[in-house]
């Protein structure tokens, strides 16, 4: 069996636009993340910095 090199969880790069759509972020929050990271960031950075409105 070939050894497959796995990337650490959260180190894959995401488009901020795709991330915002997937996690249903507001346009304001999407713009904030764009200002922080630019158009692409690691999943760990996006998850730790995204803010969502409370539904309850």
Automatic annotation (TrEMBL):
Instruction: Name the domain of life.
Output: Bacteria
Give the protein name, as stated in the record.
Answer: Uncharacterized protein
């Amino acid at each position: 069996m070939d050894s497959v090199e796995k990337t650490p969880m959260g180190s894959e790069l995401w488009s901020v636009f795709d991330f915002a759509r997937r996690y249903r972020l507001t346009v304001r929050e999407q713009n904030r993340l764009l200002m922080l990271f630019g158009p692409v960031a690691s999943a760990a950075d996006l998850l730790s910095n995204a803010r969502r409105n409370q539904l309850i």
